[in-house]
From TrEMBL:
Enzyme Commission (EC) number: 2.7.11.1
Annotated catalysed reactions: L-threonyl-[protein] + ATP = O-phospho-L-threonyl-[protein] + ADP + H(+); L-seryl-[protein] + ATP = O-phospho-L-seryl-[protein] + ADP + H(+)
UniProt entry keywords in alphabetical sequence: ATP-binding, Kinase, Nucleotide-binding, Serine/threonine-protein kinase, Transferase
Class of enzymatic activity (EC top level): transferase
UniProt-recorded name of the protein: non-specific serine/threonine protein kinase
SUPFAM superfamilies on file: Protein kinase-like (PK-like) (SSF56112)
PANTHER family named among the record's database cross-references: SERINE/THREONINE-PROTEIN KINASE 16, SERINE_THREONINE-PROTEIN KINASE 16
GO molecular function: ATP binding; protein serine/threonine kinase activity
Native organism: Branchiostoma floridae (Florida lancelet)
Any one annotated GO CC term: cytoplasm
InterPro entries for the chain: Kinase-like_dom_sf, Prot_kinase_dom, Ser/Thr-specific_kinases, Ser/Thr_kinase_AS
SMART domains found in the cross-reference section: S_TKc
Domain Protein kinase: 17-298
Gene: LOC118424564
Amino acid sequence: MGCYCSKGLVTINNRAFYMQERIGEGGYAYIDLIEDKKSGKFFALKRITCHSKEDETEALKEAEYCRMFNHPNIIKVEEFTTVKKTQTTSVWIVFPFFKLGSLQDLIEKTAKNNSYIHEDRLLGIFKGICEGVKAMHEATPSPVTHRDIKPANVLLDENDTPVLMDFGSVGPARVEIKGSAEAQAMQDLAAAKCTMPWRAPELFHVESHCIIDDKVDIWSLGCTLYAMIYLEGPFDAVWQKGDSVQLAVLSRNVKFPEDQQSLYSAELLDLINALLVVNPAERPNINWVIQRVEDLCLNALAANRV
């Protein structure tokens, strides 16, 4: 159960929290900073407004998917409950609070300072993201995909450990599409749940008979790695100008600015090209990606020793 006990105080499953401040909102969700009354620890409370039973089921899936995992690179759920109102229902989910914010915050701060993320640090963060994705892709008994991997959905702790968040887009790792109706349904779902500049090509135009699998995350990992190097996503400029992101993605219209390339190894830049492949069948799986990143880490370590 969850309720407002008094001004500034809420209880969730018999735990009392002090409301602090609004730290985010979007769509039908609000995120507030809350403080545990007993321990004094801070948490993030996500409240999702649901206008139907279907909305409630979808909102609860986010908590249920998170609770599938006990992994250092995947967000944990502290508490979750539903709050019934006259016209609507709200799903409340309590997550750990990361005071340093997201990878997107780091990227924006780095760009503002006209700096860059050192390759050693970049590789460590990216490897952690990939480890979280691997846990999802190999979950038993039901592997899943995130479908909305982007810097804003990666939190960072004090040790630079990346933590995947926002599981509202998560779904089965393998979906067989049978017919135009199912294809349109998947396309509509992707449009609603998957951020356009980070969305895999196969989700823009879903074929009537195809398999949508975990390779969608590999594409998004490529976009994320690009953003860590160039401090903006590969399709951000297209999005900001109001041009067709779909056309840019399907034609793989990706530019590689030369000013940042000298700061990174050629092998790291090659990795982006290996991930941003339009045909999902030609993209590597997550184990290949992790192995490649580990090789790059070893190369960087050896270079630093010279």
